[in-house]
Amino acid sequence: EAGVVQSPRYKIIEKKQPVAFWCNPISGHNTLYWYLQNLGQGPELLIRYENEEAVDDSQLPKDRFSAERLKGVDSTLKIQPAELGDSAVYLCASSEGGGSYNEQFFGPGTRLTVL
Amino acid sequence: AQSVTQLGSHVSVSEGALVLLRCNYSSSVPPYLFWYVQYPNQGLQLLLKYTSAATLVKGINGFEAEFKKSETSFHLTKPSAHMSDAAEYFCAVSDGSSASKIIFGSGTRLSIRP
């Protein structure tokens, strides 16, 4: 069974440019998460989807970040415009349900470098 | 609010030695506790979780952790380290509700000396 797929794995852009990350969760998982992982830190939740509905986006900086999961399957996270401080690893995870008792399966992440 | 503190950002042990990674939590409600492992350039993988059943939890790869409420701790141990255990380890906490999110610690990097 395929795991969580993310692309691209690495992205280098100049500040003020837009960037998008894509995630395809494990088949049948209706809960999808986007996390931000800064160097030397643990992941921090940006947004959680239950099917196509964003049920927790309280930590998403909405002035420059946006996300969508139109058909309740794959998802896209966008930053526009990117800033130097956005350099980090962006992780996607999925689970069968939204409770924290459900195991989350993580993708390998997209490492973003903003120059 | 919930939080976890991982004591020691880097731990180094010899191959075959005991591994002990420390985690203390803060929670106003009975917590769910987790240990995740992250190998280089990979996502996180669940090692084990405590969900208010047995206080000694066994996980994958020979790891186990013990929930100690009196000490608000959930330390991760493995009797004998293997070279393949070298990775970043994250302790995490949640309140277990359907709406809760997992709060991760800052991680401990485990190095294994030959």
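The two ends of chain B are 41 Å apart (CA to CA).
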